[in-house]
């Protein structure tokens, strides 16, 4: 989950440090520049027109992408495996990892190609979608601006949904500690949410990234220590491989898919990383920064998932830290560390959707009311994330719902759709294989969305 927070830090670093061509640059001129595919100048190279003050090397880009893809989401992998089984979980993680990586490839490749067509150095996610529609089939061009706004809001809601997941983890971790030391307390989940509401409302009023960054750095250290403590407990008295079922009821498979996609999907950070590379042509290809990074990510997530599942089985919680014995000092430290880390990274994560929302509504607010309007906006959305956390029950169910609903669209459906639209009039390959491949990915994404959301809601209703 803090993986998404690291994405937020990377995205905002791109926006603030590379003012010439930030990942959220406006593409309002595309509609007037690209009315016909015959006017595309193939000689334009967007890579040569990026004026970056401090471009990142391949190694640094690899580190940024890896850092943004690895976080506390890995601690949810054992809970994912309990909805699939050991063997199905291993192969399922590999297959989903390949699909997610290919969809990221489609997004980046399409962004690079449409940047060349539109004659702009770089584009962010929403701007890529807008540019694809603006330069695609004529019937779609008139809705290009609407698609950018839609993707902007989808991204904001996705991250806000992750913020609600963070609040649930905060509450579960603190409640577990308090219940252990004060067994007969009268505090319920709603009361814990109210306790967190006050500091969340205060810290989310911070509008400058430079004041948030130190908290993020501290959170990263806490996450590393927590991860090591979890590995220590998982590997202690490790059970035999056959101790857990190799497969589970197929009806629970959508929960596995949603959780894995939530934990693994890094669709929001790839373009900011690629846009700041000194040699962006090295991002794709074989081996390429993307393929190397995602191979490592898939292996680590698979290993953590199978080890945690074999250790805790059906009792694996939404975060493996909740399975650790609270009475032991290292385990207690892990629970405290994850609480602090998630709180600090919540603040950083919250920054990004507020920038997106404010960019889309500030033109409706008079200049002199900008500051109070931002304060109210931040307070309202922060309160909504806490209210959502107080309403929704178990952590692993909400993670599955978030992954199935939001990340299946942004990570699977949208990249495949824009690739299909962009190439519709530019060639679909031999025997139209691009059309069949992208259509298959879109259908799979819709399947994940519908079945994952349905099963998650059933599980949530069952436990209410």
From TrEMBL:
GO CC annotation: vacuolar membrane
Transmembrane keyword on record: yes
Domain of life: Eukaryota
Compartments, as annotated in UniProt: Membrane
Domain Amino acid transporter transmembrane: 59-457
Bilayer topology: Multi-pass membrane protein
Keywords, comma-separated and alphabetical: Membrane, Transmembrane, Transmembrane helix
Record field: transmembrane: 87-108, 149-169, 189-206, 213-234, 254-271, 283-309, 329-354, 375-392, 404-422, 434-457
Record keyword Transmembrane present: yes
Any one GO molecular function term: L-amino acid transmembrane transporter activity
Alphabetized PANTHER family for the sequence: AMINO ACID TRANSPORTER, GH04538P
Protein name: Amino acid transporter transmembrane domain-containing protein
Annotated source species: Pieris macdunnoughi
Classification of source organism: Eukaryota, Metazoa, Ecdysozoa, Arthropoda, Hexapoda
């Amino acid at each position: 989950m803090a993986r998404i927070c690291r994405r937020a830090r990377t995205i905002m670093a791109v926006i603030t440090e590379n003012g010439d061509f930030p990942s959220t640059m406006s593409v309002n001129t595309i509609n007037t520049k690209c009315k016909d595919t015959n006017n595309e100048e193939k000689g334009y190279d967007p890579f040569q027109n990026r004026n970056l003050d401090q471009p990142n090397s391949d190694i640094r880009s690899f580190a940024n992408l890896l850092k943004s893809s690895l976080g506390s989401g890995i601690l949810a992998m054992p809970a994912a495996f309990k909805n699939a089984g050991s063997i199905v979980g291993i192969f399922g993680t590999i297959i989903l990892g390949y699909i997610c990586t290919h969809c990221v490839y489609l997004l980046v490749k399409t962004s690079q190609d449409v940047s060349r067509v539109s004659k702009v150095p770089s584009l962010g996610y929403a701007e890529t979608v807008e540019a694809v529609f603006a330069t695609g089939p004529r019937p779609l061009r008139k809705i290009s601006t609407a698609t950018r706004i839609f993707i902007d809001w989808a991204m904001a809601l996705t991250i806000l949904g992750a913020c609600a997941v963070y609040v649930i983890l905060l509450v579960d971790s603190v409640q577990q500690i308090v219940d252990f030391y004060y067994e007969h307390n009268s505090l319920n989940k709603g009361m814990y949410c109210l306790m967190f509401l006050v500091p969340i409302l205060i810290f989310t009023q911070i509008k400058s990234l430079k004041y948030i960054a130190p908290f993020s750095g501290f959170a990263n250290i806490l996450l590393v220590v927590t991860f090591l403590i979890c590995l220590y407990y998982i590997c202690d008295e490790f059970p035999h491989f056959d101790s857990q079922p190799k497969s589970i009821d197929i009806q629970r498979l959508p929960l596995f898919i949603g959780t894995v996609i939530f934990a693994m999907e890094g669709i929001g950070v790839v373009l900011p990383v690629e846009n700041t590379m000194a040699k962006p042509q090295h991002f794709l290809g074989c081996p390429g920064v993307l393929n190397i990074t995602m191979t490592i990510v898939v292996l680590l997530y698979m290993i953590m998932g199978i080890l945690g599942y074999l250790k805790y089985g059906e009792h694996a919680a939404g975060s493996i830290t909740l399975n650790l014995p609270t009475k032991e000092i290292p385990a207690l430290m892990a629970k405290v560390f994850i609480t602090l880390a998630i709180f600090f990274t919540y603040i950083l994560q919250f920054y990004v959707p507020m920038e997106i929302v404010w960019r889309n509504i500030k033109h409706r607010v008079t200049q002199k009311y900008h500051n109070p309007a931002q304060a109210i906006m931040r307070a309202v959305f922060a309160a909504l994330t806490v209210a959502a956390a107080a309403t929704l029950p178990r952590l692993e169910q909400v993670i599955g719902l978030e992954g199935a609903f939001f990340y299946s669209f942004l990570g699977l459906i949208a990249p495949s759709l824009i690739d299909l639209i962009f190439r519709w009039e530019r060639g679909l390959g031999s025997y139209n294989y691009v059309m069949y491949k992208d259509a298959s990915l879109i259908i799979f994404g819709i399947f994940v969305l519908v079945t994952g959301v349905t099963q998650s809601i059933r599980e949530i209703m069952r436990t209410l």
